[in-house]
Specification:
Radius of gyration: 22 Å
Structural class: alpha+beta
Largest sheet: 3 strands, antiparallel
Strand order of the largest sheet: 1-2-3
Distance between the termini: 55 Å
Number of strands: 6
Helix content: 40-55%
Low-confidence stretches: none
Order of helices and strands: EEEEEHHEHHH
Number of helices: 5
């Protein structure tokens, strides 16, 4: 790692910390003595989602986050619990090791996670995901809880 001040190639790591994004290293140049910070991040492979109509779309965790946050709106679940659930969902999808994932797999995964956390949020999410047409669909979903 070259020093950004004097371009000397010899530096030493004085502190290393794991962060949510990767690894943060505090470095010191052995020539000029100045300190600087570097970050090491894992590059995530691209995953594509296969929609019901056959279209392919790049996986976007923010779309999942938006849907989940709407389902949990005004519910007594902390943002930390929701964030943890979203991280778990993304990890599960990435651990599959596939470059293409059907929306049906993602939807079922999300429904199972929400069902374990809050039944009202589950019904909210299910009504949109499963495209409920009438009250009968709600009754069927309620019986599954």
């Amino acid at each position: 790692m070259k020093c950004p001040y004097c371009l000397n190639p010899t530096t030493k790591v004085t502190d290393k910390r794991d962060t949510l994004e990767g690894i943060r290293r505090r470095r010191e140049c052995l020539k000029c003595g100045k300190r600087f910070t570097t970050y090491e991040r894992i590059e995530k492979t691209k995953i594509y989602v296969i929609k019901k109509d056959g279209r392919r779309e790049e996986f976007d965790i923010n779309k999942i986050r938006t849907g989940i946050e709407k389902a949990f709106e005004k519910r007594p679940i902390s943002t930390e619990e929701i964030d943890k659930m979203i991280r778990t969902i993304e990890e599960t999808i990435r651990k599959k090791g596939k470059k293409e994932i059907p929306t049906s797999f993602i939807g079922k995964l999300i429904l199972n996670k929400i069902k374990n956390l809050d039944p009202v949020a589950y019904i909210r999410f299910a009504s949109v995901y499963m495209d409920f047409k009438d009250i009968k669909d709600f009754k069927i979903a309620l019986r599954s809880i």
